[in-house]
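Shapes recur. One chain:

:::
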Amino acid sequence: MAEFAYTARSMTGEQVAGSISAGNRREALAALGERALFPMAVDDAAPAKPAWRPVKKIKTELIASNLTQLADLLQNGVPLLGALNVLVEQAAHPVLAEVLADVRDQVVEGAPLEEAMEKHPQVFGDLTVSMVRAGSEGAFLEDALKRTADFLELQEELKGRVTGAMAYPAFLAVAGFLVTVVLVVFFVPKFAELYTQLEQKGGLPTATVALLWLSDTLGRYGVLLIVGAVGLTGWAQKAIQRPRGRELVDRWKLKLPVAGPIFLGTAVSRFCRVLGTLLRNGVPILRALEISQSSTGNSVLAKAVSESAENVSSGDTLSKPLGACGLIPPPVMAMIRIAEESNNLENVLINVADGIDRKINRQMDIMVRLVEPVMLMIMGTVIMFVLVALLLPVFDMSSTM
């Protein structure tokens, strides 16, 4: 039994407040009605959970599998609450079982499915919530759940490919960093006395002076630098969670030399796919734009879509304000413009999303292939700098003898 705090009015109009024990919020409302009280507010009186607790990460494949099972149950005539009960009972992951149970309890209390999912962003992302909201409003929830599951599986497959391809470059980066730190912190100081004598005789090369300074700094303040880096990372994570910080990061991501087009293509693809799916299932364009803007995963593009929706509401075409934002590639804008004229926008948007996804796969393959030689060059350059800075004074000394 849970404890609920309530504020209600009696039959005489007097306002009363108190607490009541019930299985859920609906039972608490029914109990207040039996006491001839008209509830004004009923909230959970249980103590708040701690802000942080260690949880097991839920794999994307497991989330996609549960979405597919939910769609199959609904498609075969099982009511939503019954389907959620089945998922809760068979959930093997303890955290997922807890999340699904909370979603079920919220649905029991009358909350829409998308709102219940939205309260668990660590499990159900923006795209999932947007698609479920669209499916609920357009009466194609089963199809929306299956499309979302397919997209999550495709995204996880691409992520697995990238992770596998990046394993060797990441190993090179870590190995190179550790070798450099060992050389600078432990190996360079052994030459300090020799370099001091050489400096008194005729000075040291600039590279050697820089290396000695770096070695001395890391030896004295290495711990403080590590603590500062950890603190800066924590501050940056909190700043990114704010709207202004997230917008700055999203804008910066779009300007990256090689990864920027991939980030932009991914956001545009998600927007086109969700908008096309909504329009194909009869959702009005203004409502479809409102839902699809939150599925882009990029606040800069979402802001541009929001401004486009305002222009569309005033009678403008969709292609005109979208083209003015400068984020949608010109070929895509040309296809959208022609699709509007031919009244075939929903099909063209989905085809555009498929084409962008294929292009992103090619770009990802190229980027992954470039990472390995780039890491080798960086690691070789750093180690070469350390060795040259160490040996230059020795060469100078031998030439003067």
